[in-house]
Amino acid sequence: MTVKFTVIFIHRNGFDRLKQALDSAVNAIGSLDEIIIVDNASSDSSINQISKIYPTIKVIKNDSNLGYGHAANQGINTGKGKYFLICNNDIVLPKNIFNELEELFLKEPRAGIISGQLINMNREIIRTSSKEPSLFSEFDGIGRIDHSKDPHKISKVGILRGACLGVRKKMIDDIGGYDEDFFFYFEDTEWCIRANNQGWKVYLNPNIKVSHIGGASSNELYSQSRIEFYRSRIIFWKKIFPKHIVISLYVWNIPKLFLDLIFYSLISFITFGKNTRIKKKMIDRGIVLLWLFLGQPESWGLPK
C-alpha cells in the first residue's frame, strides 16, 4: 500500500499533551496515512498509556534523548510516506491540514517544506515565519530577524518555526534530513536555509491553522533551555557564516549579554524581584555568561 502522509510526533513526557495531539491527528488522517511516535526516553508513563488507547500506532522508544532532529530523522527513516508531517507533541492539527498540504505540494513541485499558521490556544496568531537570518539580524539589540506580520496568503518565506512542518520526501532524499549537530533549537532554521540554498522552496500556508501550546517541553528547565539555545545558536553561526563573521558576532554579543545582565539585575533590584519577566531575563543572561566563561561545558544544557 502506498502511504501518502507519515505523521511523526516527537515526544518526551506529558500524556495529556500527546493525547490531545494524537486525537487531532487521528481525526484528520485518511486511510493512506500513518502515524509514528518517536519517544525521547520519557520518564513518565505517557507512552504506556497512549499505547493502550492507540495500540496500532507505531512507537519508536529511545533509551536516551539524543535530540529533536535525531528523533525526527528516526521517524523519517521508518516512515513510508510520500510526504511527512513532523510535529511537536503540544500541537492540535486542524481537519483540513492534509488536503491543504497536498494541494500546495502538487501545485508547487519544488515546494519542499510547508507550515501552517501557528496559533495559541486562544486562537491568537503566533509568529511562524521570518526572513533568513543575516549578519545584521544576528547582532542582538540592533538587527534581529524581521518581525513584521506573517503573510496573509500562501507565500514563499525564508525560515519557519518548526512546531509542525509538512515536508516532501523527495526533498529529504535530495538534501538530507535534520542536522543532528543541533540537539534542540535552530535545527528547523538550518533545514529551511539548506532547502532554499539547494533550489527547494519553503512556504507558509495561513489557510492551515495549527494550535500550539509552545515551550511545553522546556519551560520546566528554563536555565538549561537557555544554555541550549545559545549552544545551538553558536553552532548555527559556524555553519552559515565565515569564520571572521562568527568572531564579529562573538565580539558583539558577549559584551551585550554582560550589559544586559547589569541592566536586568538593576531593574530586578529596584522592583524587589517581583517582575517575573525581568527576573527570567536576568537569570538567562547570568547563566549563559557563566556557561561561556567556563568554556561551554557539554554537561550543561538540555542533553544532560
Account of the 3D structure:
This protein is α/β, with parallel strands linked by helices and 304 residues long. It folds into two domains: 3-212, Spore Coat Polysaccharide Biosynthesis Protein SpsA, Chain A (Alpha-Beta Complex), CATH 3.90.550.10; 219-293, no CATH class. It is 42% helix and 20% strand. It is built from nine helices and eleven strands. The strands form two sheets. Strands 1, 2, 3, 4, 5, 6, 8, 10 and 11 form a nine-stranded mixed sheet that branches. A two-stranded antiparallel ribbon has the order 7-9. Strand 2, helix 2 (46-53) and strand 3 form a beta-alpha-beta unit. Helix 1 (15-28) runs parallel beside helix 2, helix 7 (222-240) crosses helix 9 and helix 8 (243-270) crosses helix 9. The longest helix is centred in the C-terminal third of the chain and has 28 residues, at 243-270. The N and C termini lie far apart (41 Å).
